[in-house]
Amino acid sequence: MKALIIGAGIGGMAAAAALRQQGIECDVFEAVKEIKPVGAAISVWSNGVKCMNHLGMGHIMDELGGPMRNMAYQDGKTGQVMTQFSLKPLIDEVGERPCPVSRAGLQSMMVDSWGRDSVQFDKRIERVEETEQGVSAYFTDGTVAHGDLMIAADGARSVVRGYVLGMELERRYAGYVNWNGLVAADALIAPLDQWTTFVGEGKRVSVMPISDQRFYFFFDVPLPVGLEENRATLKDDLKGYFAGWADPVQKLIDALDPETTNRIEIHDVEPFDTFVKGRVALLGDSAHSTTPDIGQGGCSAMEDAVVLGMAFADTQDIESALQAYQSKRHERAKDLVLKARKRCDVTHGKNMKVTQAWYDELKQEQGDNIMAGLKETIIGGPLG
Ligand code: URC
């Protein structure tokens, strides 16, 4: 049996690993010559780490995961700590740690784990054709690949999604712009072993420790969509949006490199239930594109891959296995997208009264409520 994997991002490489564990041959195709993720880093929460372990890629987490042991919220303006606590009770309870990782590092190590020479780059899919016997991928360079099934991990702007759903979906603007990148970890910005978030005015500034004494940082500002983007004014823009914010925030802006800082208008896609048509399955962002607000985009793709592998462990009948994959995944994936959307709205001042109430809550928080929310998200995954 041979699978065509469309996309060599997190979802595609996780799917290839999962199918290989079931003895299924995979040909992997990637649209671009060189993958350049739009996010500098990504949170792999404990559910994602469990998936990576299950898929034989736990070593990547060991190597890339940052020392995120504590969590804190601080008032953006005054810098005052609103809540600060150890994540140990959560880690002990769910049985695995969270691993914020560099996106480029993760991407590269996942491709290496599969075999870099076994990924065909510069292969952009244009069209899918299915017959009783199999499925064909037609690429824009005029070439065609044939397989028994197709896993379309071709991202939030998936081409294959239109084929599976029979219609195109619009992405929904989530209402905020996110600037993200990596800087040298600096204790004057935040403790080196802590996920620290400064909040105020519906904005947020956050740093997460990743490997090699670096911070993943992101700045979120609620803004209209389609504003001009200009690297030359990036620092001044941030200085403007965060005028009067506490010293660590100013230090972070001073420290960042505008050349390697990404500016993303955050979108998601309204959840849908159909991930599969015949021999073709959507996986990862193509099936459920989320805002990053609960750090579950990558994890959800990894979960898809694990469940896909489990489905083929149960049956080698392609259509039955893909149907089982869909029925086990669509509710969970939808939950995560909607949970992220809800958090997004509270965090980013969709209704400032609600956001203010959240700030007030944070000042009373001992960690239990936040960890209960994180736990619920984590244990809802396929590996518990
Ligand atoms: N939570 C995360 C977030 N990661 O775990 C992450 C967030 N990355 O709210 N936002 C973001 O950009």
Automatic annotation (TrEMBL):
Its cofactor is FAD. The keyword DNA repair does not apply. It comes from the Bacteria. Pathway: Purine metabolism; urate degradation. Residues 2-337 form the FAD-binding domain. Keywords: FAD, Flavoprotein, Monooxygenase, NAD, Oxidoreductase, Purine metabolism. It catalyses: urate + NADH + O2 + H(+) = 5-hydroxyisourate + NAD(+) + H2O. Its EC number is 1.14.13.113. It holds the Pfam family FAD_binding_3. Belongs to the FAD-dependent urate hydroxylase family. NCBIfam families: urate_HpxO. This is FAD-dependent urate hydroxylase. It comes from Marinomonas arenicola. The lineage of its organism: Bacteria, Pseudomonadati, Pseudomonadota, Gammaproteobacteria, Oceanospirillales.
